Amino acid sequence: MLFSEIIGQADVKQQLIQSVQHNRLSHAMILLAPEGAGGLPLGLAFTQYLVCENKKDQDACGQCAACIKASQFVHPDIHYSYPVIPRKSGDKPVSTDYISEWREFVVAQPYGNAYDWLQFIGAENKQGNITATECQDIIHKLNLKSFESGYKILVMWMPEYLGNEGNRLLKLIEEPPKNTLFILIAENQEQILATILSRTHLIKINPLAKADMIVALEERNNVPASRAQQIATLTAGNYREALYLLQHSEDDYHELLRSWLNHLFTGNRVALQEWIEGISSAKTGRENQKQFLRYFINLLEHTIRLQYLDKNLLAFSPEETDFAGKLAKLANLDQMQEIAEELNNASYYIERNANGKMLFHALSIKLQYIFKKKPLPVM
Q: What Pfam family is a match, any one (predicted)?
């Protein structure tokens, strides 16, 4: 991948290029980028620039043997690590077990998130991990001599999925073999092991600028200017979210939310229990549950925007805009803030394997109390 193929982020591109040109390259760095800002593409473009045999002033050449291999993710001195799942019970998976899928995913969804990746490999409701076995494999690979490049490079995507087993890598990070580089690409600084965070150079990447997002949507996705403006306004620098709005219908989540709120307001306990059974089933999956809660949060934000912005500047469907208008009559700003906090909390506990039925049952009770302006029960 070339720097020229990445949306915006001119300052970060320049910073990375100059670190090589001025010989100020850190042997271990974290590219900390919010979802959809291009952290993974930047990391991949940087690795290609590092191994390129005929570097240009502002980019890799894209034509030498090293560039071709790097662009196809087959360069022998660039290793990749990312969350994976066991293919069957008892497996101790490593990233190379999924290298074919990884190459396909990066080409198809370079701005995708961990949820997209895990669904791509069929994880369903399984939680991905970067395992202790993976850490041992990394140590083994990076202690070998390089084959073709002057560097040996590890690109680790989503180090947040490292548990305490990540401490196995500390000695290697502190005292790496010569010309060994660690490029970690993360979204959430708080979820990175503190021991690793303290030993790496942190490069913070901002969400995409609105102007860059609009240009990308118009030129890469053939989106009309007015629609590109709407989506860029709504997604706040998240290109992954922008593509999601373009490519996927929200009808399922919309109807799911409509049914939930209807059951809550009518007090239909039987229907509510059936709804909870459905949303917490294995078929729905934990990641899909989190996406649903995120959709609800986005709709709450949309409801607030409707009170202050021109409807024509917003990217939700007319049906969702109408629903948001009705929601505004049911909850004031303070109530919507309380609801959003409860939804964020629920998403946090889903990530930590909370029981789905108990979680959505408790969340339903809390929302009923919030809508009725009653103090929340202690649970």
A: DNA_pol3_delta2
Q: DSSP string spanning 14-31?
A: HHHHHHHHTT---SEEEE
- Residue 82 near residue 121 (C-beta atoms within 8 A): no
Q: What is the pLDDT of residues 124-183, one digit of tens each?
A: 777 888 989 999 999 999 988 888 888 999 999 999 998 888 888 999 998 888 889 999
Give the type of residue at 72: Q
| Entry pTM | 0.71
- Please list the residue range(s) of the chain that carry CATH number 3.40.50.300: 3-204
DSSP one-letter code for 3: G
Backbone angles phi, psi at 157, to 5 degrees: -95, 125
Give the residue from 106, 174, 161, 105 showing the smallest Cα distance to 135.
161
**What's the token pair of residue 165?**
């087993």
Which CATH number does the domain 3-204 belong to among 1.20.140.10, 3.90.550.10, 3.40.50.300, 3.30.70.980? 3.40.50.300
CATH class, 249-371 region:
mainly alpha
**Average pLDDT score over residue span 191-207:** 93
Domain with CATH 1.20.272 in the chain: 249-371
Residue 123: predicted pLDDT: 81
- Count of residues making up the chain: 379
Enclosing H/E stretch for 203: strand 201-204
d(CA 223, CA 214): 9
How crowded is residue 118: how many other Cβ atoms within 10 Å of its Cβ? Answer: 23
